[in-house]
Give the backbone structure.
Amino acid sequence: MKKTVLITGGSKGIGAATAILFAEKGFNVAINYNNSFQSAKILANSLNSRGYSVEIFKADVSNKLETNLLVKEVVDKFGGIDILVNNAGISKIGTITQIDDIDADMIFDVNLKGVYNCCKSVAPFMIGQKFGKIINVSSMWGQVGASCEVAYSASKAGVIGLTKALAKELAPSGITVNAVAPGLIETSMNSDITVEDLNNFVEEIPLGRMGSPSEISDAIYFLSSPSADYITGQVLGVNGGYVI
Ligand code: NAP
């Protein structure tokens, strides 16, 4: 039987690359979106037209009622969820004195509480089926911290703590929980950064370039595959050598 993957924030960037890869590997793909209905629809249509099994589901991951409903809708549609990719995330650059409290709250609510919500909503199903793989998208800034991204870095560090704790809790149920920690990746998340700042950043990356969304989806896919069956509670850095 086909396996099913739920990808939060699958409408664009890393999430969209992940949706394409899992569809091509033969999964039922549930793409969650929040604001980007058009992008999600276009992506799903193009994958369906290639014969793949893809549906879109609206939910704000920071809202527990919505993640409960999201998981129920995906299970109703596809009969279960084998893999959860917690990819949805937001960022905002500014010093701690500049960042609005509302923006900071939103960063924690989406990036950390959103991962918690989705894990909590999906856990009963995975525990019931005694199988599951959860892959959380953290960031290298969650590992080492970024100036002018304190809330973002803290939220992503929280995702690493959550990953390690949940891995221990769910291992007896046959469920693995891992994280990827991307470096600087070419997506709309970095579209506000000036070309000059990007070039300066890239000069400090040992491999000398930004990463692509598909290089992150490859790592996510690996952690979801049988090749990673004995890996849990780990953080896989995909950052061109910037953080080692
Ligand atoms: P992106 O292109 O801006 O995509 C972000 C995705 O998150 C969108 O699909 C968006 O969906 C979704 N999202 C935002 N808020 C949401 C909410 N409340 N509920 C559901 N979905 C929500 O950024 P990206 O670079 O692909 O980022 C993907 C993940 O990688 C994020 O967790 C990010 O922190 C992480 N990351 C990125 C980089 C990088 O350099 N790009 C580096 C390290 C880590 P809608 O548009 O539909 O709302």
